[in-house]
Structures are given as C-alpha cells and as structure tokens.
Amino acid sequence: MSFDDLLPEANQLYEHLLSELDFLRNYESGAFERNCEYVTTAYFSMKSQEPNNWTLDLSPNWVLDIGGEDFDTGEARDFQENMGKAIVGGKISVADRDFEEYSLNLTLLAQEDTEARGRDENRHLGAPCCWSAEAAEFDYRVARRYHFDIDMGNNEDERKPVSHLQNGGKFESGHIQFANPHYCSSPLDKPRLPHPPMDPILILHMLAKQYQTLSQMIQSEWGNRVRRAERHLWQPYHSTISDWYDVGAGSETFATYIEND
User: Fold this and answer.
1) Which CA distances in Å does 77 have to 92, 159, 230?
2) What's the superkingdom here (predicted)?
3) Considering its fold, how many domains does the chain have in total?
4) How many Cβ atoms sit within 10 Å of the Cβ of residue 180?
5) What's this model's pTM, rounded to 2 decimal places?
6) How far, in Å, CA of 166 to CA of 190, rounded?
7) Nearest-angstrom CA–CA distance, 140 and 43
8) pLDDT tens across 155-184, in order?
9) pLDDT class of 260 with cuts at 50, 70, 90
10) Residues spanned by the domain of 106
11) Packed helices 36-47 and 10-25: angle between N→C axes, nearest 10 degrees
C-alpha cells in the first residue's frame, strides 16, 4: 500500500468539484448568498479546464457571518450573533493528474467585544493583545486560521502527514476585500495533524453544524451533497487506514506510513 491510496484521484476530484460549485452557485440560502458571484466565477474557470490539468482558486475568499444565540447569557464561548466572520479560501492545482498544490483554509475573524469568554463581568477576561491601543486601527483580528492541506513532499528535512490540518498562514492580496485584519497569533505552524482531505462543502458543513447562524444552510439536498463529498474524499482515506491495520506493517508505525516522501 502507498500513501497515494489515502487521496482522491485528481481527475475524479475535478468532476466532483465542478458539480459541487454548480450546486453552490445556485444555492438559495441567505447565509451563503453573498458568495454566489465568486462561486460562479470559480465554476466557469474550472469548466474551461481539463480534468488532468486544472486549478481551483477560491479568490476572493468566501465570507459567512457566524455567531451563537447564547452570547448574551454568557453560557457559550462564542461570537456575538453574526458578528464573527468565517472566511473560506484556498487553492488546488493539478498538473498531469498530480497534485502540485492543495491547500484549503478556514479563517475566523473577530471584532472587538464580540467574543464571550465567561459570565457577567468576566465575559471578556483574557482579551487578546491586539485590542490594545497599538492595534486600534484594525477592525478585525485573526482569531483562528486553519489549513487543510495535501502535501506530496519535496523537503526531506520536513516530513509531515501527506494529508493534514495545520495552523497559521496569512491572507494574500485579493483574498478578502472588506478588512485588513491584525495577526496576533504565533508564527509557529507545527505540529501538522493527520486529517482526511477536505473540500469546500465539507468545510461549510462543519461550520453550519456548529454555528447557529448558519444552520439554515442544512436543507434536504444539502445532506446529499455532503455525503457525496464524504464518499469522494473520506472513504478512500478511511478505507486505506482500515486496510493498513488489517494487513499489518511489522515494525512500521502508522505515522511513518502516512508521511509524504
């Protein structure tokens, strides 16, 4: 077995993502509607390419308002309703059916006084450093930034799980058009955690399941699309892991097996 078995086939992923973008660009949900123009642009860009050589570039990034209904009660460690921003972006690039780049990202942006941490007078204890006077010119701070990456490996000095979750990174020019956020997180980006491959709808579904303001996105056809994404991206990953444990690999650890070259 090879770690390649953990990953989707690039040409099949092309067809899957094209269908997914076509679904999302016509998706009637107020929580996502503002992004339909960007999705449509990405869809027609992909449609003009070939299944063995293609690029999906989610730029500008997709923006969703997030928050929880329990903010005023102090019961939840959450954003005030619709006051947080979830930003979904990234790039997947394939050449001759090989992944050259695969990095989807999820960023959570926070505004001052919109994050509840406890009850009553303690609700804003431990406020981040960037709400100090030096950072007053920033409307948003990067509260969290995650990457869902596939990295086939070209650096023998830095081996990592071929499919992983990673913290860190910054926006590039053109990714977001409404904010210039402040970064107050650590530049450290390790460890990289093993994680199955993700696609845009799997990231959106994760958000919709956990943020009350996005729950309206989960409608009848939505579940079918999520299951389709799980079959394309997660079934090969988990099936290969199961096969690896069934066959056994002697003294080799699983962590070694899933590392890139």
Assistant:
1) 33, 35, 29
2) Archaea
3) 1
4) 10
5) 0.89
6) 7
7) 30
8) 566 788 899 999 988 888 778 876 778 777
9) confident
10) 3-257
11) 140
